[in-house]
């Protein structure tokens, strides 16, 4: 792998994945029954995000204590969980019902009273959600290049990019859980 230049494939994946996710949000939802209640998926996503955050914290601990093998396992597991999350997230948002923050009567319409009832927390929710979404798109090439440098055993470049990757990825994982906790009353 040392001689392979994967910059172009990483760039393509980094652009295509967020683009496809965005397109899926605007496509008409199919009338499809997957055979289970998809409304359980947001909780599953929160569990995946929680596990990813724990793995990232463990990864940092491991690398700071010279436990490189454990560091690698934690990171690879975090990547695997993130990939499962992405597939499940896309599935849910393609076939599942839309949920609106503050929609207490679940009619998919936010009236003035519902907006007023959420108060300033509505803005907090949308700020956390927006930063979560933006960073989840931005993080893709950082994670992929961090992995690439690790597999190439280019420790200096791996450390350099990981100092940017880790806090962003940890923030995305934590805010994924926060977003779920904030919107869960409206599912």
UniProtKB/TrEMBL annotation:
Q: Which UniProt keywords apply?
A: Membrane, Transmembrane, Transmembrane helix
Tagged with keyword tRNA processing? no
- Pfam families this protein is in? DUF420
Chain segments annotated as transmembrane: 7-28, 40-63, 75-95, 123-148, 168-186
Source domain of life: Bacteria
Q: Does the keyword Transmembrane apply?
A: yes
- Which InterPro entries does this UniProt record tie to the protein? DUF420 (IPR007352)
Specify the protein name.
Answer: DUF420 domain-containing protein
